[in-house]
Amino acid sequence: MMFETHTNSIWTFSAQSAQGYSTIYCDLTQQDLNKLTIDSNIAEGEMFLILIQDKYSKSIDLSGGAKNLSAEEMDLDMFNPGRISMRLKFNNAKDLSVNINWR
Questions:
Q1: What is the pTM of this model?
Q2: Buried b / exposed e across 61-93, counting CB within 10 Å, b at 16+?
Q3: SS3 sequence of the chain
Q4: Of the candidates 35, 44, 25, 42, which has an alpha carbon nearest to the alpha carbon of residue 74?
């Protein structure tokens, strides 16, 4: 069972199990980048958020239980306002939920 929704300010994903990828594309302002937060939880397996813009990419490990991260903690200085690809990568992930908010 899986649930996913994406609005202009939040991406929510949850599943009993997940393998592979889920990707969205967002046009973010500098203010959006500064406010980006992640609230996630995973029971087992691996989960990563990969942010990609042009030649820059950053992988954020969301494995190992609950994570609450701010933009400052994720060190997103390499990214500029504009289109950014957000990709969740799962490897044998079980009982997981992710809320990514940027406003």
A1: 0.93
A2: ebbeeebebebeebebeebeeeebebbbbbeeb
A3: CEEEEECCCEEEEEEEEEEEEEEEEEEECHHHHHHCEEEEEEEEEEEEEEEEECCEEEEEECCCCCEEEEHHHHCCCCCCCEEEEEEEEEEEEEEEEEEEECC
A4: 35
Instruction: Give me the residues paired with residue 19 across strands.
Output: none
What integer best gives the mean pLDDT of the chain?
A: 96
Q: Is the pLDDT of residue 18 over 90?
A: yes
Instruction: Give, rounded to a whole angstrom, the gap between the first and last alpha carbons of the chain.
Output: 28
